[in-house]
Amino acid sequence: MKHAEERPYADPEAAARKLVELAATVEGVQDGRIYIERINASFMFNLKGSGSEFGAGLKHAIERGWLWKHESGTYVKLIPPGEDLLTNSTA
């Protein structure tokens, strides 16, 4: 008997990919900024992801060089493919 439901975004890689997908659908404001609450709301309310899954996915996307987060934490930017080649030597 299964007592816990499967969490599709429990894997940080899956959560990160979904966050990048969500960010790509949001129209950026000044200089391509995407307010973090725009992807947070979609992830948590529409997709029923948890806060810890969002945090782990965001961290993974930043580590992979898919997203860049401003030091204030209020917005992110999508990093175009290839732009992170100089900063990420594990690519």
Structural write-up:
- Helix 1 (12-25) crosses helix 3 (51-64).
- 43% of the residues lie in helices and 10% in strands.
- The longest helix is centred in the first third of the chain and has 14 residues, at 12-25.
- The mean pLDDT is 87.
- A 3-stranded antiparallel sheet has the order 1-3-2.
- It has helices at 12-25, 36-46, 51-64, and strands at 34-35, 67-69, 75-78.
- The N and C termini lie far apart (42 Å).
- It has 91 residues and is mainly alpha-helical.
- Strand 2 (67-69) and strand 3 form a beta hairpin.
- The chain is globular, with a radius of gyration of 14 Å.
- It has a single domain (12-78), classed as Arc Repressor Mutant, subunit A.
- The chain contains 3 helices and 3 strands.
Low-pLDDT segments, ≥5 res: none
CATH C-level name: Mainly Alpha
* Total number of domains: 1
Which percent range describes the beta-strand content? 5-15%
The SSE string, one letter per element, is HEHHEE
Count of helical regions: 3
- CATH topology, what is it called? Arc Repressor Mutant, subunit A
